[in-house]
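User: My notes are a mess, but here's the protein and MGD's SMILES. Can you give me a structure?
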Amino acid sequence: METADGIYDSVCPLDCPDTCSLSVTIADGRVTHVDGSHRNPYTAGFICAKVRRYPERVYAPERLLHPLRRVGAKGEGRFARISWDDALDLVSSRLATVVRESGAEAILPYHYGGSNGLLNDDAVDARFFHLLGASQLEKTICAAPTGAVARALYGGMVGVPPEDYGRARCIVLWGVNPAATSIHTLRHVQEAQRAGALIVVVDPRRTRTARIADIHLQPRPGTDVVLALAVARQLIASGACDASFIAANVVGFETFRAAAERFTPSVCEEITAVPVRDLCNFAAAYAAASPAVVRCGWGLERNRNGGNAVRAVLALPAIAGKFGVRGGGYTMSMSGGFDIDKQRLGRPDLRACPARSVNMTQLGRALTELASPPIRALFVYNANPVASTPDQNRVLAGLAREDLFTVVHEQVMTDTALYADVVLPATTIFEQNELHKSYGHVYLQYSRALIDPVGEAVDNATLFRHLAARMGLGTADLFAEQEMMADALGVARAEEVRSERVLRMAFAGSYDVVQFGTVWPRTADGKIHLAPADLGPICFREEVPSTYPLVLLTPASERLINSSLGEFNLADPRLTLHPEDASARGIVDGAAVRIYNDLGRVEVRARVADDVAPGVVSMPKGIWRSATLNGATATALIADDLGDIGDGACFNDARVEVEPLGA
Ligand SMILES: Nc1nc2c(c(=O)[nH]1)N[C@H]1C(S)=C(S)[C@@H](COP(=O)(O)OP(=O)(O)OC[C@H]3O[C@@H](n4cnc5c(=O)[nH]c(N)nc54)[C@H](O)[C@@H]3O)O[C@H]1N2
Ligand SMILES: Nc1nc2c(c(=O)[nH]1)N[C@H]1C(S)=C(S)[C@@H](COP(=O)(O)OP(=O)(O)OC[C@H]3O[C@@H](n4cnc5c(=O)[nH]c(N)nc54)[C@H](O)[C@@H]3O)O[C@H]1N2
Ligand SMILES: [Mo]
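Assistant: No problem, the inputs look usable. Here's the predicted complex:
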């Protein structure tokens, strides 16, 4: 490819709600600089520090340049270079053998958010695996509870765009830490605060976001359902609920009210540790403010009560009548607003017969326990399960199975790729075309390849096109980009986004997103359902007594996106613990510690700080095994339990003990 030296448009492909438009400097066919652009107005010309370092990923020493075949033991990391021809022959013949001997359900595709674009996940790959008849993957390691709840209550109504937060008089950031996970949202939050808005943060940790808050509620992890029900009860008791809005638009209010009844402010304090006074102040301030917006995040969903928590939080704007005004209501994922038909992209109709579903949260269990048929071939792409999936030791035990054939398509040699039988090199965003929606804003974007693939890297779509051709599945046009784009967007919109590069969501000719103004619940009857039958009764599950006294949280850090970019950006991860918990165990700041429970042990250094309450400890998600003292990371301590709604992962619900290393 001949790309003249210059500055070009691109889009960040990482799994982050901000989906930034990028300005990329190309010199001599290489990416030399990445920065934010103004093409997507939400990016406003600035990006996070880690993505400015993205060229380090493109040219990383860990970058995979050629297909590889394992020659050492599983996980040992000894590979021999092979040609693409040999690699495709090997993979297609092994998959064909598994189909012939055990049936296609013995093949499991495993993928998530590595490439957050529409052309390289759940598109060509999905068509390929449907035609093959492989087991289906339930994508639950993120957003399954929030997604299920937002659909049940509101039919996935489009959320308040963060660009409208500047208008709000009260912003509630519930279980979300935009200072790390959505820096462009934070900008609008601060703009609102300067204009006098009240900022409320609900987070068990004193994050950088919480530090700027006017009110910081610090509930015990996993108790948000109680907190939100207590707020609802308080709104109702103080006459702050909007009876006429409820009568016209809400189904199930009485059931919801009855469920909230027992959570008086003092019962709430007992369970959540949020003082009665803080609860009452928050409820009164929220009731009085308009526009008021609740930004519900993902941190609160990742525990045994997560679905019910989200359900109670998303009920608040309905009860308090916060809709119908620009900047008021709630924000959850924005994806639904792009009107992209995932079925038309992934084409489940290509499947000749139904196949079982495997919950990705329980990958380790699936690889070690599933029978009739057992998983014999695992195909990993856009994912790094050793780093990002619960129960690391069980995942590793599964990957170590001699009789499992594992293919990993990756950009860099990850902890998962080390266990592959065949490693295939993947392109980065600068080496492929991609269509990007966003789960945090309203702009649909398209980006083109700017440089030649590094080494022999191949994008996901091309890889599955090649494999389909080898295996005689489908026809070439079924897998073409043109076809994908048209299926996702319709021909006209596909052409428009290709030439314009950025398209804004529109609703009946308006660019404004006003809940109950321009966008409405997409439930069958157009109403809000506070007690939908498919979610069962709203409830709070008490903590299961454990011999391990500390709750471990494993949130996002500024340094990585999940495990992506971890090869250069988080060499010394720390466990944060409260000074009381530290001194009770003889742990000082910077000391090496062992964190352990029945599932595993992780050794890192400690950071002693009162950012967490006593009884709560925290370490970042996504770190690489080489970054800890013993080669195990947080997921080694996290059970593969499923949450209350949506069968999601419970990353923030582990119980652990900590001791000084050497004790
Ligand atoms: N820099 C960076 N940005 C990212 C990511 C990243 O890894 N790094 N990941 C991306 C992805 S995939 C996602 S899904 C989003 C996630 O975006 P966020 O939802 O903002 O991220 P989390 O860190 O999972 O959780 C947010 C906060 O929830 C808190 N929390 C934990 N348990 C509870 C609880 O029981 N109740 C309450 N109220 N809060 C709780 C945590 O302390 C944390 O500060 O961010 C995206 N953006
Ligand atoms: N402890 C703990 N763990 C968590 C969470 C938590 O809160 N706590 N949160 C979870 C969340 S929110 C999420 S979304 C998941 C994410 O889990 P994953 O989606 O597995 O995310 P990553 O670990 O970043 O792995 C993505 C991989 O895809 C690769 N990749 C990028 N682009 C491409 C491409 O175009 N093609 C191919 N073939 N590969 C590509 C990247 O190099 C990277 O190694 O992790 C979850 N894990
Ligand atoms: Mo996520």
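The chain has a mean pLDDT of 97.
User: Great, I'll file this with my notes.
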